[in-house]
Amino acid sequence: MKLEKIKKDSAKKIDSLEMPESIRTPGRTWTRYPEEVIDIEDIEQVEPDVEAEGDVEFFTGEEAFEKAGKKFFDLIKSDENKLNAVHAANINALIYAEVSGEAELHIQYENDGPVLSHLIVDAKDNADLTVTEETESEEFNSSFTEIYVGENASVEYGVVEKPGNFSYSRRKAITQKYGKINWLNGMFTGDLNRTKIETVLKGDNSETEQTGVWYPTREQHHDISLHVRHIGDNTKCDMDSRSVVDHKARSLYEGLQKVEEKAVDTSSFQDQETLMLSDKAESDASPKLMIEDPNVEASHAAAAGTIEKAKQHYLESRGLNNEQAERLVVKGFFEPVMREIEVPRVKNSIREEVERKLDEKRSE
C-alpha cells in the first residue's frame, strides 16, 4: 500500500470517529477540542533538520514509509480516534530510523504552518540511543512517535513541545527482553496541549521511566496521560511528573499502570504533584492501577497544593520579596525531576522554559 492511499483512506474516516477521551468529572468534560483543526488545507511538506551520530541510519518521506513497512502505524492506530485520523491524512514530516549500536539523533521541525510529524525508531538488539525531537509551529501540531526497543537495547527519548495554538502528541514503545525506554516530555507553550505516552513492557526484565514536566499559565490548558502495560516477568516502571499552574490555566493528568495476569515480580510506581500559584488556576489528576496478578509491588499517588505559608514566610524573613520567594519555590519544586533527566539538551531547554515563564510573570 502506498503512503498516499493511507492518507486518503484516513481522510475518509475522520468524520465517523470520535475525539480522544479525556478526564470527565460530574457535569464537566475538561478538555474541549477546537473544530477548525479538522480542516487542514493545502498542507506543505516540512523538511526536518536531522543531526545523527553513531550507528544510526535514517530515512525521510516516501523512503521512510518503504523502510518502516508494517511498523508504520503499528503501535499507534490511525483510526483509533478523530485526531489520529487527521494526523494520518496530513502527515508532512515522516522519519524512520534504524539503530544498530550507540547513537544520538536530534530532529527539529520548524514551520509557520501546521506540522504533523511521525517518527518511527527501530532500536535493534543491544542498541543504545538518545533521541530528541523539537517542534516549532505557529499553528496545529501533531507529533507521533513509535519506538521498538530490541533485546538489551536502551533508548532515552526527550522532547520539549513548542507548538502553536493546538498540539496533539502520541508516543508509544514496546520492549523486548532486558530492553529499556525512558521518556521525558516537557510542555510550556501552546493554548491547548494533549499528550499521551504509552509503554508496553513485553519482554522479561524490561523497564521504563516516564517523566512529565509542564507549566501552563494564563489561559493555557495542558492535558497529559502516562500509561504502562506490564506483560513480561520482572518488569519495572517508574512514573514521576510535576506541574506548576498559574493564572487561569488548567492542568490535567491521567496515569495508568496495568499489570497483566502472567506478569510476575512486577514493580510499578507512579507519582504526580502539582503546585498551584493562583486560586483561579485548576488542576485534576486521575492515577489508576489495574492489577491482575497479586504478586506485584506497586503504588500510585497524586497531590496538588499551594506554596506553604511557613516556607514563604521563612524565605521572606531572609530578605526575599514575594516574587523572589515564589521564583525560588518554583525552581525547587521541579528540581527532584530535573535531577533524574539524563538528556542534557532537554534538561537545558526545560530550565530555559521555566526561567522564561517566571520572567513573564515578573514583567506583568
UniProtKB/TrEMBL annotation:
Highest taxon of source: Archaea
InterPro entries named among the record's database cross-references: Fe-S_cluster_assembly_SufBD, SUF_FeS_clus_asmbl_SufBD_core, SUF_FeS_clus_asmbl_SufBD_sf
Biological processes per GO annotation: iron-sulfur cluster assembly
Domain SUF system FeS cluster assembly SufBD core: 113-333
Pfam families, per the entry: SUFBD_core
Signal peptide: none
Protein name: Fe-S cluster assembly protein SufD
Species: Candidatus Nanohalobium constans
Encoding gene per record: sufD
